[in-house]
Amino acid sequence: KQWYQRRGTGEVYVNFRTYKMSDVPTDEKELEQWLYDRYEEKERMLERFETTGEFTENSTFTLLDLPKGRLIGNVIFWYILAFFLFDLYRCVLGNLWRFASGFVL
Questions:
Q1: How many CB atoms lie within 10 A of CB 46?
Q2: Whole-structure pTM over 0.85, yes or no?
Q3: Residue 52 forms beta bridges with which residues?
């Protein structure tokens, strides 16, 4: 998956491609070269996007309109959830550690 944000516009463009597992090399050296080729391809696509506004010759875009209020609400929700879960895990792991440290092996 590749993403790119044009500076100053607040727009994010995403371009992705899927590959069949049978098309991905299994040999380590071949896989390494295949990954390098994908990286070079991505760099060419980003250069093209910067100059033409298209990732490839036949690029099509689907506009997704995300209301900023909803987006901010989602960010706040996930931040609070992550903070709560971190505190919960810390508490559970701390209690397990105290319980386990009471046993002498």
A1: 13
A2: no
A3: none
Q: What is the pLDDT along the chain (105 residues), one digit of tens a residue?
A: 444 445 555 667 777 888 999 999 999 999 999 999 999 999 998 888 888 888 888 777 776 666 666 777 888 888 888 888 888 888 888 888 777 777 655
Question: Could you give the CA distance from residue 43 to residue 35 in angstroms, rounded to a whole number?
Answer: 12
Distance CA 89, CA 83 (A): 10
Nearest to 68 by CA among 1, 12, 3: 12
- CA 98 to CA 105: how far, in whole Å? 15
In whole angstroms, give the CA distance from residue 36 to residue 28.
12
